[in-house]
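Title: Comparing notes on inverse folding

I've been comparing how different people in this forum approach sequence design from structure. To keep things fair, I'm posting one structure and asking everyone to reply with a full sequence. Here's the target:
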């Protein structure tokens, strides 16, 4: 993948270039697909989904980063689900290659 994918959800701006996921907001974060796990949880009973990233390998998880979005933010976040799916695919591909 050579094209950058971007999406905005609430105050966060997500960008993914095929290897690096960056989340810009009040506390910007940067993650490499070879050193992260990604989960999208929910929605909860109020319709709020949660994006959760665990830095580190599955065998030795490190810091956990969580972003909670309102149901309205999630609905208005055009392209976010596709971006997160591309990140998941990148993680899976890196693991298959033994990275």
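Reply #1:
Here's my take.
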């Amino acid at each position: 993948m050579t094209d950058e994918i971007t999406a905005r959800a609430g105050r966060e701006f997500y960008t993914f270039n095929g290897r690096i996921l960056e989340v810009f907001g009040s506390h910007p974060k940067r993650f490499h697909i070879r050193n992260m796990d990604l989960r999208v949880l929910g929605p909860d009973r109020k319709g709020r989904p949660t994006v959760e990233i665990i830095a580190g390998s599955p065998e030795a998880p490190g810091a956990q980063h969580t972003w909670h979005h309102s149901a309205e933010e999630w609905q208005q976040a055009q392209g976010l689900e596709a971006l997160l799916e591309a990140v998941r695919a990148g993680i899976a591909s890196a693991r298959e290659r033994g990275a």
